[in-house]
């Protein structure tokens, strides 16, 4: 039912967007696009996947425990679930697959993936802070986003940086949570504590993963800039670094199907000083391809992992 509602919301937002723009103009944007820049921008999916897989490999307790090829397979398989789960929560499925393949026990594999996901989210929020710092239109939307970003960043840093605060947070959350979410919070609380013990004992690895996560998001933002080139539009590089993370964050809100609709509307809104709504809508479709292409590439591996899981359950 939640998935159905998110799909309906996405379709509703898209219907509103496309009812207000020139659809023939949208088709014309793609017909007149720069083919070379389109190939380059879409091809950025490859280095992004490779960098994300390398980060996963570096998170493992021992060098060589997870091969680079296996890390790529896990990353692509998780991309399949990212298309249907909100806020890219399909990445959490990597913990199950890592445990199922016998690389780590269940608790440590979840800790590892939770840490990876946390670094990923905090890195995006850091780029959002940069964007808000130079965003000139300080209207009510600006202040709402600024409040949300700052609260999320401070909360995330406290949860990652202070084990005492994390214990207080999870204990407080479990007191008010219903029965079913309470069990999930209990498991996450245990994994979060293990994650603190594991990662904070190696500050060099912690710094490496944090810097890698920030750089990966820089590549994501660079890809969006290349998309704009492909659409024969022009946006200053710094302006793109400021606006694109805010639009991506809007797409991660757990309201729509894979961010479709909210991300498109945010791109049209934020980039309206630089190009028209048709180009903004085209950019939204290209940004959706950033999630769709890895998901297509991950289907064979996801099917393989799923078959292994089913075989394990039957046995």
Descriptive overview:
It is built from 14 helices and no strands. The chain is mainly α. The mean pLDDT is about 85. The chain starts with a helix and ends with a helix.
Amount of helix: over 70%
Cα distance spanning the termini: 31 Å
Oligomer: single chain
Along the chain, the helix and strand elements come as HHHHHHHHHHHHHH
Q: Count of helical segments?
A: 14
Main sheet?
none
The assigned structural class equals: mainly alpha
Keywords:
single chain; 315 residues; mainly alpha
Summary, kept brief:
The protein has 315 residues and is mainly alpha-helical.
List the helices and strands and how they pair.
Elements: H1 2-20, H2 23-31, H3 35-43, H4 45-59, H5 68-82, H6 93-100, H7 106-134, H8 140-161, H9 163-176, H10 179-199, H11 203-230, H12 237-252, H13 262-270, H14 277-314
């Amino acid at each position: 039912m939640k998935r159905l509602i998110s799909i309906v919301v996405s379709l509703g937002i898209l219907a509103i967007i496309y009812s207000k723009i020139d659809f023939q103009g949208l088709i014309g944007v793609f017909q007149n696009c720069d083919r070379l820049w389109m190939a380059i921008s879409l091809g950025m999916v490859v280095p992004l996947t490779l960098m994300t897989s390398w980060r996963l490999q570096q998170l493992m307790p021992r060098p060589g425990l997870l091969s680079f090829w296996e890390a790529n397979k896990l990353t692509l398989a998780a991309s399949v679930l990212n298309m249907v789960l909100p806020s890219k929560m399909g990445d959490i499925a990597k913990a199950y697959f890592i445990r199922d393949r016998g690389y780590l026990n269940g608790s440590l594999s979840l800790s590892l993936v939770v840490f990876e996901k946390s670094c990923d989210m905090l890195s995006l929020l850091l780029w959002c802070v940069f964007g808000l710092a130079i965003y000139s239109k300080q209207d009510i939307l600006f202040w709402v986003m600024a409040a949300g970003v700052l609260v999320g960043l401070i909360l995330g840093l406290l949860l990652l940086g202070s084990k005492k605060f994390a214990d207080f947070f999870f204990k407080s959350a479990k007191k008010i949570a219903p029965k079913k979410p309470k069990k999930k919070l209990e498991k996450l609380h245990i994994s979060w504590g293990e994650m603190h013990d594991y990662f904070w004992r190696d500050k060099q690895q912690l710094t490496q993963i944090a810097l890698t996560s920030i750089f990966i998001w820089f590549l994501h933002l660079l890809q969006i800039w290349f998309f704009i080139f492909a659409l024969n539009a022009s946006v200053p590089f710094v302006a793109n670094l400021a606006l694109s993370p805010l639009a991506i964050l809007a797409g991660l809100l757990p309201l729509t199907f894979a961010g479709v609709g909210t991300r498109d509307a945010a791109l049209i809104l934020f980039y309206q000083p630089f190009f028209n709504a048709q180009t903004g809508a085209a950019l939204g479709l290209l940004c959706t391809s950033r999630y769709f292409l890895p998901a297509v590439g991950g289907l064979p591996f996801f099917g393989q992992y799923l078959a292994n899981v089913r075989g394990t359950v039957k046995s």
